[in-house]
Amino acid sequence: MSDIRAYEQPGEAGFGDYVQLLKPRVMSLVVFTALVGLLVAPVSVHPVIAFASILFIALGAGASGALNMWWDADIDAVMRRTKGRPVPAGKVEAGEALAVGLGLSGLAVLMLGLAANWLSAGLLAFTIFFYAVIYSMWLKRSTPQNIVIGGAAGAFPPMIGWACATGTVSVESLLMFALIFMWTPPHFWALALFMKDDYSKAGVPMLTVTHGRKATRTHILVYTFLLIPVALGAGFTSIGGPIYLTASILLNGWFLLGAWRIWRRDEAVAEADNYAVEKSVFRFSLYYLFLHFGAFLAEAALRPYGMGGW
């Protein structure tokens, strides 16, 4: 990592700066998918335990974000999308970010173990380690497969939520994990197509940088094809059903159409219209994941025993 002291500029950090350090937008997705994992499990969980579990999962996600910002401050400072983050902007010192990340990590894991069970706490600890060390410190700067392998970090929350309720790992929780894991590459590569210059300047070996945009377009299409059977397969388990399958068929059809349009795009045309299609597919991919997990919730709400968490 570059000399992080360059970003340790004195300044008055406000409450909002520390909130941004925890990556609240990423945390919101973690909280939602973890909550779904907990609520669709076929086990009753006391509302207080459910609330505490989600709170500590959220703290763990925030800890991961703080550790990532501490480590990546050097490359964040040269990327337009990230240069305003608290550490490169000089609002929070790197040492503070590290301390917040480590402190929240220990607190979140310990309290989740006490509130729910130690399997879920162990999964949370591994998730934090995977994101901060395996992805941020190793994969991100060393291989164009960074987002493929590193996507596992964002895929664990529903598995953790399920473990909070059941104390186990099941086919259902593995399929929720696989859904996010397979969704991450086409989602992120769509973003990378219109953010290539940022990654080039930062020296991050994103696929668009190492293999070019044409190859990235092909990868998006291939991974979308691989995503579809995973998404549909979840519909034939205990957490699926007609609502989920209907939603999944429609969402995957639309996502595949978007990936096909991206694949067919000529680079000159894409640049001329400011990557409108790529940006549209990226935005849709966010709804894609949210609506899949919303459909899981709808199925759980209609079951005779209702949602397991309440």
From TrEMBL:
Pfam families: UbiA (PF01040). This is Protoheme IX farnesyltransferase. Pathway: Porphyrin-containing compound metabolism; heme O biosynthesis; heme O from protoheme: step 1/1. Keywords: Cell membrane, Heme biosynthesis, Membrane, Transferase, Transmembrane, Transmembrane helix. It is a multi-pass membrane protein. It comes from the Bacteria. Belongs to the UbiA prenyltransferase family. Protoheme IX farnesyltransferase subfamily. The gene is cyoE. Its main location: membrane. HAMAP family: CyoE_CtaB (MF_00154). It catalyses: heme b + (2E,6E)-farnesyl diphosphate + H2O = Fe(II)-heme o + diphosphate. PANTHER family: 4-HYDROXYBENZOATE SOLANESYLTRANSFERASE, PROTOHEME IX FARNESYLTRANSFERASE, MITOCHONDRIAL. The chain crosses the membrane at residues 26-43, 49-71, 92-112, 118-135, 147-168, 174-194, 220-237, 243-263, 284-302. It is found in: Cell membrane. Gene3D superfamilies: UbiA prenyltransferase. The lineage of its organism: Bacteria, Pseudomonadati, Pseudomonadota, Alphaproteobacteria, Rhodobacterales. Interacts with CtaA. InterPro entries: Protohaem_IX_farnesylTrfase, UbiA_prenyltransferase, UbiA_prenylTrfase_CS, UbiA_sf. Its EC number is 2.5.1.141. The keyword Membrane applies. Carbon 2 of the heme B porphyrin ring is defined according to the Fischer nomenclature. GO terms for molecular function: protoheme IX farnesyltransferase activity.
